[in-house]
Every structure is written in C-alpha cells, then in structure tokens.
Amino acid sequence: MDGNKKQAIQEDTAARLRAAGLRPTRPRVALASLLLGRGHRHLTAETLHAEAAKAGVRVSLATVYNALHQFTEAGLLRQVVVDAARSYFDTNTGEHQHFFCEDDGRLIDIPGDAIAVSHVPAPPRGMAVRRVDVVVRIKRG
Q1: Closest of 40, 32, 50 to residue 98, by C-alpha
Q2: How far apart are alpha carbons 94 and 107 in whole angstroms?
Q3: Among 5, 65, 110, 134, which residue has the least CB neighbours within 10 Å?
C-alpha cells in the first residue's frame, strides 16, 4: 500500500475514533485500521495481536485487549462471549445473532430477522434490557 493511501486510511480511522468519543492514539488508530477496514468479521484479541505483529504494529496483547474493550464500549464493535474462556469481537454492530461452530471455533452471522426471541423476562427494578444475544452451537454431523 502506498504512503498516501495509508495516510488517508489512518486519517479516516482517527476521525471515526473521535466521532465515537475516543482519543485517536497511535495504537488505537493502528488497531482500528486493521479491524475496521476489512468488512464484517469476528476475531479474538489473539488474532488481532497476530495481525498487528504481521503488519509491523508493535503493541502488547494487553493493549489489544484494552483497545477492543474500548471500541466495544464506544459502539464500534460487539463482543460475543461464547464461553467463559472465549470471546470474539464482531465488526458488525447491526442486529444479528450467531452460529458457533464447535469443530473449528468459527462464528457465522445469523441475520437479525431469522431468529425470534420471545418472552424475555422483565429485568430487575432499575434495569433495562439492552440486547439479547443468541449463540446457536453447531457441529458437523
């Protein structure tokens, strides 16, 4: 990628971070550029850390985790918790659910209108339901 294109991507990413209420630090801009410039996808902190290293972005795994959580809080990502030891970060923040393939650890989007959740219990007093996440576990038969 030539220098002008890379600079334009970084400026666009910095503006997007500012619009989300985040200060565009060098690590955030580098990680957001890797994350948000490749369409909808699901990745772990470890996957993004490896992509950053391959791209020559020197950041610690702790920095990657912090940035992913900050991006999630700012609404740029959705966190999908598959189990206590595994979380994915989804660049598609629109309404949808997921299949989780137990064979290979892949997440696959389920369109928002393909699943209906009914009879969600009322939350405790003073609380509001923000979102209902459904993860349908699948395995090769």
Answers
A1: 40
A2: 15
A3: 5
pLDDT, tens digit (0-9, with 9 covering 90-100), for 87-119: 999 999 999 999 999 999 999 999 988 988 888
pLDDT band at 85 (very low <50, low <70, confident <90, very high): confident
Taking only the tens place, the pLDDT of each residue in 117-134 is: 888 999 999 999 988 889
All domains in the chain, ordered by first residue: 3-83 (1.10.10.10), 95-138 (no CATH)
Of the candidates 35, 122, 46, 113, the residue with the CA atom closest to the CA atom of residue 74: 35
pTM: 0.87
Q: Which of 85, 84, 80, 120 is nearest to 97 (CA)?
A: 80
Quote the distance between the C-alpha of residue 58 and its chain's center: 20
